[in-house]
Amino acid sequence: MHLKIHHIAIICSDYAVSKKFYTEILGLNIVREVYREERQSYKLDLAIGDQYVIELFSFPDPPERPSRPESCGLRHLAFSVENVSNTRTELIKKGVDCEEVRIDEFTGKAFFFIQDPDQLPLEFYER
């Protein structure tokens, strides 16, 4: 069996805020946006370049996701970037609160975290 990641699904509490964050702040491209009347839900398909990666959903009154303390399940999403310092500087200029750059003790690579509008941890990891 040869597996590859197809996409990651994220449920947001405020669709407009999350759509703006993922498209305008992170720069993901919109592939498709649909409103599903029967579910009262938007579904926004997003891509990095030409690779489809994230489905952003809205649902009426979703429960909050615990981020702290860390709980079982998906811990965070990590994006590979060419230069961590440049990426961090660009995000700070866009008003994003960024953690300090750290070095992975096992790989020697630089990384840092931010949170999306629903406090989902997002990591930026140097290639």
UniProtKB/TrEMBL annotation:
Residue ranges annotated for the VOC domain, each copy included: 4-127
Keywords: Metal-binding
Keyword Metal-binding in annotation: yes
Domain of life, source organism: Bacteria
InterPro entries: Fosfomycin_Res_Enzymes, Glyas_Bleomycin-R_OHBP_Dase, Glyas_Fos-R_dOase_dom, VOC_core, YwkD-like_dom
NCBIfam families: PRK11478.1
Protein name: Glyoxylase I family protein
Source species of the chain: Chryseobacterium camelliae
Organism classification: Bacteria, Pseudomonadati, Bacteroidota, Flavobacteriia, Flavobacteriales
